[in-house]
């Protein structure tokens, strides 16, 4: 079960309607600061517990409505909705195996099974009836929507509360519950059960309380008729014992609650717990609601090798749980795989799309490449992207037989032939006296070729007068060359 689609309407910085589709595995959100990446995380929080419209509405349309609509899909969705606390949603599963919920400030109403009219407000979670196409509120109270899915957030300004919570829907609780399944059959737990029965049963607390029971019975009998009263102290579920737990971290012999540590240590703990969670082998036939992971800038406080290990863990988790990652790390994106990952580029520049899918980064048959992602997401000018563009355009033109070899039309794969062809193109950037590269008596005529050759064979050369004629290309020169080749690729 995973979020396949989300529709935002006037939600925070997303004015108007915006539809986003997601992958069931890892979803990367990239873009500059304040471009709306973590707003998607907030939309999930809104679905879970949104109340006050002023906290969520786009500021310049405060008189209009705000809504978030989420579509769930997955081959396990039918089975999940058969769980006792989710059966109320099973009749809302569509024929194409989708469940759609929404929270909206727009007032409405629906008619229940007893033909009774009921109102729909911001406080109500609405579920789409696939037969009527209308939204209803079968759960009555919002808290029941949390029974449908768990969301685990790790924000860059992390609050540790969720990772100090040992409840069975939280990471620590799930870890403990998973590894203690056999514990309840061991002698030490059975002895605890026996001790509890002795302490709170007929041999312990019960006789002490019998006089109080009798006094209560007498009063009830006088006022309401004969009634028996009995105090019962059953053994709490093992999960209730876990809830009283805390995580203590020891440094230099001093133990401190994790919640009292700094943000860096708290994030390290949260991400460590997630990595441990990825190492647990869940039973294949176990049906349970999923945990959705929302991780904001996981590269913070992590060196490249640690980023590698974390992403490997998230990769494993994503086989069963959907993962959303916001990142500014070009290094982290080196592991992007278009077959298993989804990538969205966020922007607030008016001329750009608000959210651009990776499938629109289609310069190459192998798009999106690492260099392509970082150029369009962050404006990062990299030598790798320049070489990708140059190499692809070179092969493309060679295959189309649009080559020149020493001024004559011939089929050639030579770099020098490609350089001659580039030199005839509109808006070409040519070399100058300080950017000259001579290989086999051929001097590069265009900056794209010069930059390509300098990247592959760096170093300065001086002419007979001692003047440096082979300077290192600047970032702006590489950027201009990239822009030229992108436009050239579009028309050839």
From TrEMBL:
Pfam families: AAA_15. InterPro entries: AAA_GajA/Old/RecF-like, Bact_Antivir_Def_Nuclease, P-loop_NTPase. This is AAA family ATPase. Residues 1-332 form the Endonuclease GajA/Old nuclease/RecF-like AAA domain.
């Amino acid at each position: 079960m995973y979020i396949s689609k989300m529709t935002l309407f006037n939600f925070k910085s997303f004015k108007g309607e915006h539809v986003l589709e997601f992958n069931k595995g890892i979803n990367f959100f990239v873009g500059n600061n304040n471009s709306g990446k973590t707003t998607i995380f907030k939309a999930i929080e809104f679905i879970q517990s949104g109340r006050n419209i002023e906290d969520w509405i786009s500021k310049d349309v405060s008189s209009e409505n705000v809504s978030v609509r989420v579509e769930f899909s997955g081959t396990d969705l039918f089975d999940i909705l058969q769980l006792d606390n989710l059966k109320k949603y099973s009749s809302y599963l569509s024929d194409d195996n989708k469940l759609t919920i929404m929270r909206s400030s727009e007032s409405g109403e629906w008619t229940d099974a007893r033909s009774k009219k009921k109102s729909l407000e911001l406080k109500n979670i609405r579920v789409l009836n696939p037969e009527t196409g209308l939204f209803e509120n079968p759960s009555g109270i919002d808290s029941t929507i949390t029974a449908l899915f768990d969301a685990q957030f790790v924000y860059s300004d992390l609050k540790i509360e969720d990772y100090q919570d040992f409840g069975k829907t939280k990471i620590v609780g799930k870890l403990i519950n998973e590894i203690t399944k056999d514990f309840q059959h061991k002698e030490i737990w059975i002895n605890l059960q026996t001790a509890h029965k002795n302490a709170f049963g007929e041999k312990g607390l019960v006789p002490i309380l019998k006089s109080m029971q009798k006094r209560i019975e007498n009063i009830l009998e006088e006022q309401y008729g004969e009634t028996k009263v009995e105090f019962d102290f059953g053994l709490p579920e093992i999960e209730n014992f876990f809830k009283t737990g805390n995580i203590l971290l020891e440094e230099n012999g001093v133990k401190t609650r994790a919640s009292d540590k700094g943000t860096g240590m708290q994030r390290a703990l949260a991400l460590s717990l997630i990595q441990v969670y990825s190492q647990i082998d869940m039973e294949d036939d176990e049906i349970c609601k999923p945990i959705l992971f929302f991780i904001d800038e996981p590269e913070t406080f992590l060196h490249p090798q640690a980023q590698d290990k974390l992403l490997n863990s998230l990769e494993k988790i994503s086989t069963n749980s959907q993962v959303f990652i916001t990142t500014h790390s070009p290094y982290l994106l080196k592991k992007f795989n278009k077959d298993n990952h989804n990538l969205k580029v966020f922007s607030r520049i008016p001329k750009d799309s608000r959210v651009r899918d990776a499938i629109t980064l289609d310069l190459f048959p192998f798009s999106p490449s690492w260099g392509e992602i970082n150029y369009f997401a962050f404006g990062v000018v990299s030598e790798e992207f320049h070489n990708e563009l140059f190499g692809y355009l070179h092969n493309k033109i060679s295959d189309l037989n649009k080559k020149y070899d020493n001024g004559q039309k011939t089929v050639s794969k030579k770099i020098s032939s490609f350089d001659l062809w580039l030199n005839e193109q509109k808006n070409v950037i040519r070399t100058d006296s300080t950017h000259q590269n001579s290989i086999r008596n051929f001097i590069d005529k265009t900056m794209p070729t010069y930059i390509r050759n300098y990247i592959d064979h760096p170093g300065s050369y001086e002419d007979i007068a001692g003047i440096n004629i082979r300077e290192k290309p600047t970032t702006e020169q590489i950027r201009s060359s990239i822009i030229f080749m992108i436009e050239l690729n579009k028309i050839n």
